[in-house]
């Protein structure tokens, strides 16, 4: 990757008003106390109306909103953008690629576009690719992480999977985040020092599966989402420790020099297990999953947006994302400029 990659600005987009746990309990008949103890999310945003099932926001809507905000903060016009990279697990369609719909919405033309379909680690995979794309001809890029996870769920209270639906909804959330990446140093930007992106756990069973149903499957409205919560709780903290150790080694940093940690944003007790595994005592944690839910690839950029207002010059941060669908560990070292 280029040694001169800088996050100049960030942008976020969350659909609609926040939906609290009581609203989900009323809609699906789920017990609030047990779900909160299991999930740990207080509220989230959905791109559909839970009562009608009507789609209120597409991935294109959210991605374009986040990008527009990031561009405005960096004082950029569409003609200033040299490439666009999107990481998502929930594109609007198989084709056309959602990244191109976002570019079209923004008025960005005649540039390279890339779409990575991946789970929780997709945002950092997109950042990794964007850093590698920066060169003397490509000076400014847009990187987007976005998901509309709720569209994968069967929102029918009368199905025999109501309990599972309710619990998943307690932790799920939709949203988008974006960052303007530049090769030129801008005062107040965040330097991207190193990005780790590793497929891991060879031959291990996936911890999460999201099926893409076709027309032939519509007669069988089963939940398309499956999660092995036990495997996730066991493996994510271990992979986070590996990712932290590897990315710090790549950067040449000591753990004690890190001021901020952007941990994997999984619901439930997993974040606490991660913190215990990493053994970080004097580090400020940048977390938002309790307030926005598990918004997939949006989360690392939502965390970056929070970090942008806190990190000072020479302060260091590490962001980690672990994807349990087929066990990918990703991390990035960041430094205030």
Describe this structure as you would to a colleague:
With about 325 residues, this protein is of the alpha/beta class. It has helices spanning about 20-30, 30-40, 60-75, 100-105, 120-135, 160-170, 230-250, 270-280, 290, 300-310, and strands spanning about 5-15, 20, 45, 85-90, 110-115, 140-150, 175-180, 190-200, 210, 225, 260, 285, 315-325, 330-335. It starts with a strand and ends with a strand. Strands 5-4-6-7-1-8-14-13-11-12 form a 10-stranded mixed beta sheet, sandwiched between helices. Strands 2-3 form a two-stranded antiparallel ribbon. The model is unreliable at about 160-165 (pLDDT under 50). The protein folds into 2 domains: about 5-180, Thiolase/Chalcone synthase (Peroxisomal Thiolase, Chain A, domain 1, 3-Layer(aba) Sandwich), CATH 3.40.47; about 190-335, 3-Layer(aba) Sandwich (Peroxisomal Thiolase, Chain A, domain 1), CATH 3.40.47.10. The longest helix has 23 residues, at about 230-250. Helix 4 (about 100-105) links the parallel strand 4 (about 85-90) and strand 5 (about 110-115). The chain is about 30% helix and about 25% strand. It comes from Kibdelosporangium aridum. One of its GO terms (biological process) is fatty acid biosynthetic process. Pfam families: ACP_syn_III.
